[in-house]
Each structure stands twice: as C-alpha cells, then as structure tokens.
Amino acid sequence: MKKTLFKHISLALLLTMGLGSCDVDRIPETQLSDPAFWKTERDLQSASNFLYTYLPGLPNTDDNWSDDTYARAPNSISDGTRIAPATDGTYNSSYQLIRAANNIIEKAPLALNSGVTQATVDRYVAEARFFRAWGYYTLFQRYGGVPLILSVLKENSPELFAPANTREEVIQNIYKDLDFAVEKLPTPTQLGTANYGRITKTAALALKSRAALFEGTRAKFHGYGDYKAHLTISLAASKAIIDSKEHDLFASYYNIFQLAGEGRQNRENILVKQYGVSTSEIVLTHTAARNLENGSASPTRNLVDSYLMTDGLPIEKSPLYKKPTISTEVFSNRDERLGATIMKSGDSYIGTNPIFSVSVLAFQLTGFLSRKYFNTDDWTLQRSNIDGVVIRYAEVLLNYAEATYELNESISDADLELTINKLRTRGKVAKLSNAFATANGLSMRNEIRRERHVELAVEGFRYWDLIRWKTAEVELVKPIIGNFFFKSEFGTATAVKLTADNYILVQDATFRRFDPAKDYLWPIPINELALNPNLKQNPNW
Questions:
Q1: What is the mean pLDDT of the chain?
Q2: Is-annotated flag, keyword Membrane (predicted)?
Q3: Is there a contact between 162 and 534 (Cβ–Cβ < 8 Å)?
Q4: What percent helix, strand, coil does the chain show, rounded to 5?
Q5: Between 373 and which of 12, 288, 366, 381 could a Cys-Cys bridge form, CB atoms 3.0 to 4.6 Å apart?
C-alpha cells in the first residue's frame, strides 16, 4: 500500500479551502471556533495535515541558483544581479507555516479536556514543532538572524515590532523544537504502513543533522561562533539514525525518483512530499517531466565533470577517461549515478519522440537534460504523482562523513566504509580510502564534497553548500558551460556560442558576479522593513 497520508492531506486541503466531500460530514475548520474544534485526535490530525502542504514540491529548480543547472534565462541569484525585493514569497510562506504550527502547539492541549491522551497531544505538537523548525531553518539559511515568533500573535503583540534574533538564538530554537520532536514522535517502524508519510523520529533527527551541519561548516569557513558545537550535534544526530537501523539505501539510484521507489518498501526515504494514489486520484500534482523537457533546470558541464570514473579517479586523473567523440561516450566508464541523473541518447523520452537524442538546444541550453523524476507517461499526461523526496538516508550518511572530517580534519577508513563507500558501491565506483587518496594526490575534503555533489545532484543542495563552504565567490563567477558540441548530433538549427575547446558556452563569466560582502545573506524584503522599523536590513543590501 502506498501514499496512505495522501488521503489525509486531501482532507486537510478540503478543510482549509472550506470545501465539502462525499465522506466528510463535518464543517470546515475555518468555520469552527476553538472550543468546538480541538476535541478529538481527528481534529489534531486535520490541523496537522495542513502543515504538510508546505513541504517543498517538484520540480526542484533551486540548483539554478548555483553552477549545476541553468534554465532558459539568466538567474539573478546565481549571476549576482538581484536587488532587494519588495516582497519575498519564501519569507511570507515560512512565517505562515510558523503561525500554523504555533496555533497547533498552543491549541492542541485543549483536547486533553475531551479525553484525548497526553501522548496523542504530544505527538501532534511534535509534528508542529518539526514544521516550525522547518520554517525557521528555511529562513535561517537565507537571512541569518530573523524574528523568533513562538506564539500566535494578536494585532497589538509587541513581537510585531521586535528586532531580529541572533543566528545563535534562531538555531538553538530549531534544535529545541527538533529535540522535542525526536522525543515524542514514533519511529518509522512504529508508525507502520498505515501512516506512511507522516513525520517520524528519524525525520526530526535528519533535519537536525542538516541544520547543524549547515551552521557548523558555515561558522567554520566564515569564521564565527563555536563551529565544533554544531558539528558535534550534526554528527550525533546522523549517528543516531544510522544506529537506529530504520533506514538503508535503496538498491536502484534511478528508481528512487520514479514510482518504483515509493512507499515503505524504500527505506532510504525519510520524508517525502506525497502527490496522490494514482493518476485518477490526484489532488496535488506536479509536471516535472514537462518542466525539465522545457529546460527548467538543465545540468551543466560543472556537474557532469564532477562524476568519477569507475576506477574512483576524477576525469583529469583517470587513465580510463577519453575525450568523447559522440554524446554517449560522456557516460563511458563513469559512476552509474551520472546516467541515472542525466539523459543520454537511447533513454526513454517523450511521446512524440520516444527515444532521447541530443538534439534540442532551444530548450536545454546546456545540451544536458535532467533525468530525475522524468517519466514518459507523466509527460504525456501532463501531470505526475511521483512523490518528491525531501530527506533521504544518503544525505544522512554524507552529513556524518562531512561532520566527522570537519571536526577532526580527518576521517577513518571505517567511517568511510560506513558512509561514502556505501554510496560509491551503489554507483559501481571504486571505494575511497585514506591510502587511495594519498596515492593519487586527492584531497579527502574535496572527495567528501564531491560525493555530496553527485549523490544529491539536482535536488537543491548545491547552492547552499557553496554558501556554507564560502566558495560561492569562487564558483559562481565562473562561466556556465554545457556539453561538448557534437555537431553531427546537435545539428545547426539553433545557433550556439562555443568555447575555444568546442564546449557550449551558455553564460560568459563577464555576466556573472558574486559579492562576498553581501551575497552570503539574502536581503530582507523591503516591505518587512517598512512594517517593522526595528528590523534591520542585512549588510550592504
């Protein structure tokens, strides 16, 4: 059975929108007073279900902010041309999520008066605190310190005019919320198939691992705070998930992002955004295949060249690498994750052109097409119910490896076996060891970062990794380069610029900039500054 949370989410949407349903005889929550609503577990569940609609959806185009993908037009974040906006949808939606979570945290205890058990109330409060932490982490990544709003505000609440809290205050509150969630939420095994899709103990640990790694490495490379304290938190949260034995890697990397990778049988998934039971039962939907085919996030040469050869060496060091003469040779003797992430000639494509060929530069400006979530049937239907992966076990392994290395400036072969080499084995790449790195002149830090780069490719991590490593000022000012221009395959229908060595030049370096004095934080929306005079703009915006 799959997508069991889907029907509960559907009910939450119906309640939120004030719509009726053939099997729902209750009036919408929006028309209920607090004393009439917060009485049963079903009430708590219905209120909590609304929070799940804030999980990030598909297609994920966040890597367009980085050097890994490019759309059909320049991106003002990746090329440094943006200005402080009047409003920001992410800022607004994050605080909307936080308000909804605060409402549940405050109101759920009312159900105790109607006989709902403390354990039940704690579980739904824990879900709400997970989502409050999610909302604050989203803000924290972008803006740093922001106002901490931990209660439902009224029109005259003093918090409306409070200054931003510090980075440390925000991240500590994220940890506090997640610690409560870890304590009160069930494990995936306890949750079972019937409630698959709901937040679990390991999801809370995984978000804590992610947030702590972000702040620990950012503090280390930007030179502030106690970075070791955060890295220690990330390491402990990651190890707790590993030791729980609740999760493991899915056998097929490609199928993680297809229907075959859905449900409880895929233990790699820690948290997903669910899209429906079938093509005939969809409330939420996405059009990832259509968007990707139309060039919404086309991979770059920077990403492709990061994949190792099967001998475990990068292309500039491996004797296996040969400069390709046809497009399929780009994938020869490479990490299998490359072919699972990027379309190659011969792969299943779209209804009007069932077999992919490297030919359309009008849409995929880089000459590469992302394959994750690309499904031929979904392209034809113009809708998809493939679940979107939000957190998976592979990230936890990568967090553990990186936190270990950055704490100690070293990592043991045993820890490499526990983490990095499990991912390499799935990709059919030679294992990494300290002796191998030394013998081949490889930087262990770079190899750990490379593994993260390719394992989580086109999933929205790259930009934030460059931000926390303080390498955005180096990487984002480089030109955007695409595939080698195979004239016999690409043809001449679309005019393209080429580099001196015959690669597609998508955006020249002269059109890209990154100001380290301001671009490592995002600008606070101008309207927010006008509404709250005690809220200050981030430096140099």
A1: 93
A2: yes
A3: yes
A4: 50, 10, 45
A5: 288
